[in-house]
Every structure is written in structure tokens, then in C-alpha cells.
Amino acid sequence: MSEDQRYNGWTNYETWCVKLWIDNDWSSNAIADIVNNDCDSIADVANYFRQMHEEDADDIISGASVFADLLRASLRVVSWHEIATHLWEEYRAAEQDDEDDSGDIVRVALP
Known about the structure:
Blueprint: H1 13-25, H2 28-38, H3 42-60, H4 66-76, H5 80-100
Helix pairs in contact: 2-5, 3-4, 3-5
């Protein structure tokens, strides 16, 4: 996809928008718990958030309408894998940093 079709560095507006709302609506601890404890892979993270958003959409809309069709169409073009990759890298890296800061003394030989 060319850069002129991207939105704020993301695949499209819909992907950017969903990631923005995840960042704003979810606590860091909740996201970290999902990424580090409930999911074993980036694909698991993508499926978790896709299913959660699809279920929320079903709760919000009922029946057939132009708004139902537009919402479902928007969710279909979200790059769930792109969002999951960013979450995985951010929260798995944070977990690794926490492990690295365990307080163990590391001796480094100086030349």
C-alpha cells in the first residue's frame, strides 16, 4: 500500500481509529494482561481484539440498517494483525524490560 493511502502511519483510517480507542479506553495493565497471559502469539492478540470489537458492534447495532452495514464494513478493513503486532511488541518488550530490571548485579569487564 502506498504511503498516500495510509493514515497517520497505519494501514488505513479504520486501523488507526481502533488502535487509538484501544490505547485510550483500555488500561495498560489490562492490555498487558491480555498480551502476556491470555495470548500465545500475535495471531491470538489479533483474534482477541477482532472478536471483542465484532461482539461489541453486535451489541450496539440491531437489525439491518445503513449504519449497521457501514460499521461492519469498517471493522472488516481494520488490520487486526497490524494492531496486534504493535501491542505485542510494546507489551512483550515491557515485560522483558521488567525481567531485565530484576535487580541482579551484572558485571561488565572493561577494557
